[in-house]
Amino acid sequence: MSGFIQQIINGLSIGSVYALMAVGYSLVYSIMNFSNFAHGGIIMFGAYFGFFFMTLYKFPFSVAFIASGICAALMAILVERVAYKPLRDRRAPFLYFIISAMGVSIFLENIIIATIGPTFRTYPEVFSAQPIKIGNLAIGRIDLTMFIISAVFLVLLIYLIDHTKIGKAIQATSFNMKASALMGINTDFIILLVFGLGGFLAGLAGVLFGMKYTVYPQIGNITLKSFIAAVFGGLGSLQGAVIGSVLLGIIETITSGYISSQYRDLIAFVLLIFILVVRPMGLMGKVTEDKA
Amino acid sequence: MKKFLSLLVVFALVISLFSGCAKKEAGDVIKVGWIGPLSGDQAVWGQCESNAVKMFFEELNNNGGLLGKKVEVVAYDTRGDGTEAVNAVRRLTSQDKVIAIIGPNSSGQAIPISSILEEMKVPDIATVATNPKVTVVDGKVKPFNFRICFIDPYQGAVAAGYAIDVLGFKKAAILYDIGDDYSQGLTQYFEETFTKKGGQVVAKEGFKTGDVDFRPQLTKIKAANPDIIFMPYYYKEVALSAKQARELGITATLMGGDGWPSEQLMTMAGDAVEGSYIINHLDFDDPEVQPFRNKYKQKFGKDSEINGYLATDACTLLVEAIKKANSFEGEKIKEALEGIEIKGITGNIKIGKDTHNPENKEAAIIKIENGKYKFVEKYAVK
Amino acid sequence: MLSWYYLKGIIMLAGIYLLPVLGLSLLTGFTGLFSFGHAGFMAIGGYTTAFMMMKLEVPFIPAILMGGLFAAFFSFIIGKLTLKLKGDYFCIATLGFGEAIRLLLDNIQYFGGARGWPGLPLKTTLITVIIIDIIAVILLRNIIRSRHGRNMIAVREEELASSIIGIDTFKYKMISLVISAFYAGVGGGLLGTYLGFLQPKIFSLTRSTELTIIVIFGGLGSLTGSVVGTILLIALPEILRSFANWRLVVYGVIVVFIMIARPEGLMGGKELSFDVLRNLFRKRVKEAKAEGGK
Description:
The complex is a heterotrimer.
Chain A: H1 2-32, H2 39-55, H3 61-89, H4 94-115, E1 132-134, E2 137-139, H5 141-163, H6 165-175, H7 177-182, H8 187-213, H9 223-233, H10 238-259, H11 264-278
Antiparallel strand pairs in A: 1-2
Chain B: H1 2-21, E1 29-36, H2 43-62, E2 70-77, H3 82-95, E3 100-102, H4 107-110, H5 114-120, E4 124-126, E5 136-137, E6 140-141, E7 145-147, H6 152-166, E8 171-177, H7 181-196, E9 200-207, H8 215-224, E10 228-230, H9 235-247, E11 253-256, H10 263-269, E12 277-280, H11 290-300, H12 306-325, H13 330-337, E13 341-344, E14 347-351, E15 358-359, E16 363-369, E17 372-379
Parallel strand pairs in B: 1-2, 1-3, 3-4, 4-7, 8-9, 8-10, 10-11, 11-12
Antiparallel strand pairs in B: 5-6, 12-16, 13-14, 14-15, 16-17
Helix pairs in contact in B: 2-12, 6-7, 9-10, 12-13
Chain C: H1 4-30, H2 38-54, H3 60-82, H4 87-107, E1 117-118, H5 126-145, H6 147-157, H7 159-164, H8 169-195, E2 197-198, H9 205-218, H10 223-239, H11 247-261, H12 274-293
Helix pairs in contact in C: 1-5, 1-8, 1-9, 1-10, 2-3, 2-4, 2-8, 3-8, 5-6, 6-8, 9-10
């Protein structure tokens, strides 16, 4: 029994990592309607920012954490300006955005390898490696912190979107960009804001991820899982992204623990297909019909 | 206009290709190729190899070169991919006209290049391609493929033999990378030897290349209560899985292969790997290893990975073979390589004629004590 | 100078990759579906071909056809389940499929697992690749020009409108997917017999994205674009080889640059055929005449 509870704890902790990544991605999706495959690259940069802030400049953790978020946000905005805005201006179909995003992600990963090298880097210890023990169960301190930080920032974000004026503007833009522009919303600014927010979350996710799993140029690849999680939950829905992530985390752990760790991703894939067959827009996604 | 611009870029690149080849073909320079991953997730090892190879020949050139000629190293990136390796070797053998190739670092790259090597008659010495089929397929040796490392069956058997015969452990668990050829190879032979010697593999769990969280598998392993956990993969995953294992309260001894040794492992894993055993190619504290170790660190500002040592030995092997053959012809170098004996950093190496593998290479058993690699003994499985 | 031996290798590789690219071109460029799983179909084709040749001793050409058919069969099942999905949902489903196939092959020790399958017969020659490529292009061109092809394009342009005027959109998406998987499967078979070796790692997600990048780079809705794109983009990493560590950095920049500078791709939906050349020539002649008349 304690094994099972431990697995659930593992699943929640893995899920909360996915969630922090999936939300930023889903946020951009809700406005731009395309999968921002450069998100992983921004997360990776966030991890490196945090690492260098803490080791080179000796920032305390909290300062480094927020500073990395801000730097990552600026980077995300830069990526938007360089790689997406020209496409936006000419109303290119979503395929082009995806390819452009892939180009960016190839670039980001390899620029790190070419400049500062592919070596793995370890964060200085902020949280004790000793887990909190409850009977036979172990809860990592970093995991707990990550879980809490993720939860706090996600709640803040959802509050921002649902209850502030700027949030309403974001919602309006995501619903219909053209009409929002006509209603006097500066959609270009909203898009930058959304990329900035997504980038900020990516930066935080990067730091937390780097602390727990070390820093290396291929960190971005893990976002693949959060893309799948976001689809599970329903693209464009923040709540969906969170639920999808936690669900995926738990499904993966339970599969590894009780069915087969060798076939874990195969089983997760079959489940994904099953969910999509039953609910083609994911768990929380809105079913939209084509506008004729 | 923009179409024109983009085409211009492409043409400029094509021209840069041609200009790159038009370099002067001086008569007193010969070329040696190196292939391996300079980008992608194996770049750490590839870049180290390429550094070591370049350093080796630089030194050789400063000391008068080889048979009166200077050696130029041509290093190409493969991203760790088999098809890219094929392209790189085609280019090395036909366009750059290298006399021999060092690398690659994995079997997935070393196996598909063999037909080209045979066609172009250029010998290749792989650094850490450990699949037996790199040099021998269906009992027939591939004429131009050589290697400097020991093979999966040997390493897996040594690990299992040492665990059961010397350490006296009867219950083993294995955690391995499903997507990695090296990891699967070691797992298979460890399991075979361990069960043959009367041990019991109580859990065998897999993960996928790129995974960072192993707690679900480790929780399951914990329930099986093994004496020892065999972890045949590279040190990044080792550090993560070892830390997570300790976090979950697993106290079993950990054991691994030559993917482990790296100065990085200690910083990454800390106490978690304390008391673990490693099957290695060499003893890091051996006085004969120090010159290379210090030179590399001085030159590149960081410690060499295990690949650097093996790549250097591959270079020594090649140079000795060329001296023995007194020729730069591929065919003659190949013949000279067969049966050659050298004293390398990783020990005495004798290349078998029928296997093209280093024969009788003893594995070094290393124990991690107080955050240091401590040499225990040379060991060969009985 | 560029050696023929090296060049031949690149041409063969480009010729092999042309097949999955053509398939994907039909799916993405002409039907508007986006797949990240075509490396998975290539893997199925490759392993089926290897199985046919090594275990059942089927001759080369029937074996690669079987590889294609088996990939097509798989795509039919996947299509049944996922073709109703929209945009990114379909995209992620194919991505998951590609990864699942690789995981499956990693685990199947009969085919060598992750350690790969060495010693396959080296049957792929430059001539076979070129002949198969030519047949593939002609076949695909005829499909696109047929009524079916026009219906596929209609599905791409206006899915809702097409279904209203009575086009069975699901059926045309399915046809497109199955054909494209067949092409990818044949390509996988050729790749295996070119390398003499198969390993699940070869068919990674990176491979799938490369294929998609080629299709878009060449221009959606243009077979000529796919051909030109394949040749350029397979050659590009080779051209960049001297950049060593910076190779993929430059590659990424070029991909983004092309998207920004020319998002419709190289050919932008146009085909290069004899008609176009003739028209171009005629125009020139007319202009010349007009000038001569002055």
